[in-house]
Amino acid sequence: MKYVPLILFALLSMSCNQNSKRDQDPAKDPDPVANFDWLLGSWLRTNDQEGNLTYEHWTKNSSTEYSGLGCTLHKGDTVFKEYLRLFKTEEYWNFEVVGVNEHPTNFPVIRQTENSFICENRNNEFPKIIHYALRDSILTARISDDETGISFLFERIQMK
Predict the structure, then answer these.
(1) Which helix or strand (DSSP H or E) is residue 4 part of?
(2) Helical segments of 34-76, H only
(3) For the chain, what is the largest distance between any 2 Cα atoms, rounded to a whole number of angstroms?
(4) Which of 70, 85, 103, 126 is deepest in the core (most CB within 10 A)?
(5) Are 157 and 40 within 8 A, CB to CB?
(6) Which among 143, 89, 88 has a CA at the least distance from the CA of 119?
(7) How many Cβ atoms sit within 10 Å of the Cβ of residue 37?
(8) Considering only CA atoms, which of 32, 17, 21, 15 is closest in space to residue 92?
């Protein structure tokens, strides 16, 4: 009988530790942020190289999947195209890129807030980290590794 308070204290301590670990890693939280709806729509890159027009377009397929298309036109010709996808498997969100490498490249989302996310794949040559954020109606995307980074600034546009 004298061990009951000790056992209850141990169980309570373990329970608190599990919650604090989950809070430190929101990507592993079953539903840290409800959605990525802030990405939806068409975006035009504002810091592009002269002669280029780079677009991203995002749609919502379901509550657990978003599709994106990124493309760059140079003097009217498509010079780059990639298919993007944010999808949830079990409790984890993933960012998938298709069309750049021979096979789809997956970047698990490691951090997410109401209007940003960071995903990482340390096995990918470049980029290893992808960071999207929306601030003051400007969408920023940054791709980087440990030494190099490229920033993309986008403004929302109306497609006809």
Answers:
(1) helix 4-24
(2) none
(3) 81
(4) 70
(5) no
(6) 143
(7) 12
(8) 32
- Hey, CA dihedral for 61, 40, 123, 103, is it positive or negative? positive
Is the torsion defined by CA of 60, 155, 126, 119 positive or negative? Answer: negative
Is the pTM above the cut of 0.85?
no
pLDDT in tens, 23-80: 334 444 445 456 999 999 999 999 999 999 999 999 999 999 999 999 999 999 999 9
The SS3 assignment for 159 reads coil
Nearest to 118 by CA among 23, 25, 18: 25
The amino acid that residue 14 corresponds to is M
**By the 8 A CB rule, do 129 and 143 touch?**
yes
- Torsions phi, psi of 101, nearest 5? -100, 170
| 103 phi, psi to nearest 5 deg | -120, 160
